Structures are given as C-alpha cells and as structure tokens.
Amino acid sequence: MGASASKRLEAWRRHGGGDFESVLSSGAYALVDARWIIKCARKGGVLKHRQALGKEAFISSASLVCPWGSLPVVVLSCPWLTKDHPDPDGTQLRRVAKALESLLTHSPYKRLAVFWDYLSLHQHPDPANGGMRTEAEDALFKQGLDCLGTLYSHRYTTVLRLTTFPDGHKAENQPEGSNVAAYFDRGWCFTESCMASLTKDDKRSLDLGRMRDDTGYDYQALKAVCAQGGCRRPPLLPSQFAAELESKTFANGTDDMPLVTRLYEGAFMEQIGKATMLCYSSLGWGDAEAAQLAEVITSGAAPMLEELHLDGNEIGDEGYKALAAAIRKDGAAPRLSLVSVDSKPAELVAACEDRGILL
Predict the structure, then answer these.
(1) Domain range spanning residue 302?
(2) Which top-rank group of organisms is this from (predicted)?
C-alpha cells in the first residue's frame, strides 16, 4: 500500500470507518459510488439489483477520505414503491441523485460512498419468475441485515430519509403485495429513522421530503433545509420503540418485526452507551421531546455522557423540569459535566450546581 493510500485508510479509520471493514471485506454489503448514481440518473436509468451491477458502480473504503470529523458514507432510508423493486420508473433515483449532487457541491467531501439496500445487499434477481438468491448470496444477505444497525446509527454516517413519495405515485396503482403505507407507517423506514436519531448531530439525519424539485442546493443549503426543526425525534428507549413498532406495516412482519426490534435495541445500547457527547441543537424540540430525552438519561443508558447540547430548541418550563429531574437521578449520566441550553430556569440551575455541571 502506497503512502497516499495508507493516509486515506488512516483517516477512514480515525473517523470510525473501521466499524464497517469486516462486513465490507466479507461482501455482506457493498458501498456504491455517489457519482455513479448521479450518472445513472442523468441518463434516465433505472436501478439494477446488486448482482447485475458492474465493478465501476462500487467504491472501496481505501479510496475514501474526509479531512474533518466525519465519514464520507451516506446511508439511504427509502420506501420501496413495489414489492420487487424500490423504484421501477427511476423517480426515486433522480431525487436521491439530486441530494447526492448537492452534498458534493462546495463540500469537504471529495467522494461519497452510498449504502442503498437494493444496490448494496444481494437481492432476488427475478423473483416474479423464480430467480432467487443463491445459497451463498442468501447467507451474505442475512449477514448484511444483521449489520444495518451500525450503518444507520453510527454517529458519523449521514442518513438521507426519503419521507415522501414521488409526484403522481398512487397506492391503488401498485402491484398486488406492495407495501403502500407512508414512510413513517412502514416498519423498516420507522426503524431506520429511529436508529438515525440516536446520537447523530443535527446535520447528519436529513429529511429529503423537505427538498424541492424546482430548487438547486449545494452542501450547506441542502443540510439547512433538510435538517429544519421538527424533522426528527429524540431517541426512544427499546421498550418504547417496540411498542410503537406494533402499529407499523411490513411486507413480511413475521420475520422482519423481531429482526428490526433486535437491530434497534443493539444500536441503542451501542451508540447511546458509548456516547460522550450528544448534540441535539436546533432541532425544533419542545417540552415533549425534552421529557423523552430525560427518560433516556434517567434510564442510565448513557453512562459515558459528558456533554449534552440542546441550544437552539424551544424547550419550556416543563421540559427543563424533566431534564433537571433526570440530572438529579442517582446513577444517571454520572460523567455529565456540561449542559448547553438557551434558558436557565432555577430548577435546572440548582440540579446542575448540585452535580457540579457547567450550564
């Protein structure tokens, strides 16, 4: 390995890329070059499944580097439009390509690697006509599913959530067996969104439903629009997640519901459990969101937490009261030393003073 490649690999690992190396080397999932996706969209193409893609579509971790504290990895959360193909007309492809092109414009990223399930995981090549994964491909597919929690929840990946359907998409026109529910009513989309809301900062979980087709964006503009207040929720405790999941729809709920329950719980324990800083600034959160976050802190799930940033939100007295109670809870966030908020009500001030926390 040359000096340049060695430096790229070092940077990749320094920003957390090592968390994905074993699964990438196994072939359980592959990362796709964002520029290839953009090129495909410009040609008016339609996505092909992973096994049908040429080598030029994929990108290796060794070729990725970002000069600041992030990973050049984008993870897509996108509802499938039919049961056998996520985007048979290429409309989703064009929307995603627009976002990727924006992220590459006037940005610190030189290249972007994309996880998109249809392109990244082994698929049934032609299920309508009996064309199914081989035994080896099926084993890799299952291994890839088991690793999705880390991809979506990792602090430094950027998750793009396509929360709205393309113009003209109608549920009644979809083939029999298709999941026609809205984004947040689908079990997988709900799970992916929840995992992406655990420990990422305000600009790494983006709602592409806020992106306008008639507007051009660069890196900063896209992040500003798609991370506007109210676009994501606070973390849910695994028990809360499981309760809400009961109302969501799956194409195969028997297998998928226990799987996503396990994935979320694992992601929650891993990411919240090791987080030293949680930055939830400028997310439009109010009292209900603050109270939900207080429940997570009270549970003792964040033993390593040192800094909590909540400035730029709309939290009122009730929310601050809940946070104060969480801070006073024995054993909750024992290492917490800094809380950043816009207001300093007496109850919160007293709780922080008692703990020696800078407010």
Answers:
(1) 278-355
(2) Eukaryota
